[in-house]
Amino acid sequence: MIQKLGTKLQVHLSQLGVQKLKKVTFQNIVDDPDENEIITLGEIMKDLDKDGTLLDGVIVTSQSRVTKSSN
């Protein structure tokens, strides 16, 4: 049996002069989010950060649990 556990987004931001990416995670988002809305969220997070911050990308993770049925 497959049980849906949830979907999350992780926005990756890069800052000038900093090698390590800044990661902002959003838990329990809607299933199958729209690509344009994902990018819009990433751009909003970029705009809320420091000047010179760039959107590196967004990772969408869907988790499910698979269990053996008790037949």
From TrEMBL:
Superkingdom field: Bacteria
Protein name as annotated: Uncharacterized protein
Organism of provenance: Enterococcus malodoratus ATCC 43197
Species classification: Bacteria, Bacillati, Bacillota, Bacilli, Lactobacillales
